Amino acid sequence: MIREDDPQFRITPIQQMASACSGALITSLFMTPLDVVKIRLQAQQKALLSNKCYLYCNGLMEHLCPCGETAWIPRRVHFHGTFDAFYKIAKLEGVPALWSGLSPTLLLALPCTVVYFVSYEQLRFKTKTLYNKWTDTVHQPMWIPLFAGATARTIAVTTFSPLELIRTKMQSKKLTYSEITTALRQVIKYEGYRGLFRGLGSTLLRDVPFSGIYWTTFETTKRIFNKPDSEKNSFLFNFFCGSVAGSIAAFITLPFDVVKTHQQIELGEKEIYTDGKIQQRASNMQNIVKNIYSNHGFKGLFTGLLPRIFKVAPACAIMIATFEYGKQFFQKYNTQKYKESLQRHQEIVIIGNHNNNDYS
């Protein structure tokens, strides 16, 4: 039986990158139309001011969009439900409108997802290898995916935080690249390079616990059901485990998500003056929590629980199922190559022995 972490058959980092890319691409293609429709319905139900921003996520990354006459949401069309929204958007704006926001997803979420998943796989494998050597065992304790998931997410989020700031500003206002460059230079001048990582703290508080809980729950779910290897590696089983893990992680980390959403929308609404100063200092996490609690009570920190679960669960399921399927594909490929190499080696040995016998 071939073990997943057997060094002879284990997939390479390049193959892991290809699996992560395919997963991110499929996730964005499936989830973006659903989120576009959801936000169109939400936007017509809420009396949003013309200078406000709103946030939506297609399962891989968030998109901050402005409302008003310059927004990509036309207010003259009224939707009477989900299917009506699908039909009218496709008919009046064209089918490609259902994938609004896909380009920034592919440009930023793809590399971020690759760094995240490859880092997780490498950290998990190397940590498990060291642990097995020290304890002389072959199993994987649950703290290993917790550690690997949290660390990998920290690396990915920190690495792409400056790009996230740029993307947020470009989505919230129609700014050119030259205007963004000028504003960022002034931010660095007045606030230093720390200014490029504004909002990183709240992002880490949301994403790092989510990642640790997600991977731990995913591995635990697979172990609890104790399926045969043929079923454990199937697309549907990984899809199920991914949806369970995503739902649990989404529920536990929802308060962090609420705070992060408030901060990111606030960041999109702030003006960066040409002298590098911010219109108003962004509220810190403590002030946002106090404000939410004073206005809505404790339940305010769990606002949007069902929409978040309905969004995160399928996105996590599609992503992990596709990623695991890619890993399985490359593992079979590596196994076949190893068997062919071993067979060639044996044939060479047989020919060599035959030649030696002829000379003797």
From TrEMBL:
Q: Which UniProt keywords apply?
A: Membrane, Mitochondrion, Mitochondrion inner membrane, Repeat, Transmembrane, Transmembrane helix, Transport
Q: Fetch the InterPro entries from UniProt.
A: MCP_dom_sf (IPR023395), MCP_transmembrane (IPR018108), Mtm1-like (IPR045315)
* Range of residues in the leader sequence: none
Localization (cell):
Mitochondrion inner membrane
Would the keyword Membrane turn up in this protein's UniProt record? yes
In its keyword annotation, does this UniProt entry include rRNA processing? no
Any transmembrane segments, and where? Answer: 97-118, 235-256
In this chain the Solcar repeats are located at 11-126, 140-224, 233-329
One GO term (biological process)? mitochondrial transmembrane transport
What PROSITE patterns does the database record attribute to this sequence?
PROKAR_LIPOPROTEIN (PS51257), SOLCAR (PS50920)
User: Could you state one GO cellular component term attached to this entry?
Assistant: mitochondrial inner membrane
> Taking the first listed entry, what is the main subcellular location of this protein, grouped into a coarse class?
mitochondrion
Q: How does this protein sit in the membrane? A: Multi-pass membrane protein
Describe the family membership recorded for this protein in Swiss-Prot or TrEMBL. Answer: Belongs to the mitochondrial carrier (TC 2.A.29) family.
Q: What is this protein called?
A: Solute carrier family 25 member 40
Species annotation? Papilio xuthus (Asian swallowtail butterfly)
The taxonomic lineage of its organism, from the top, reads: Eukaryota, Metazoa, Ecdysozoa, Arthropoda, Hexapoda
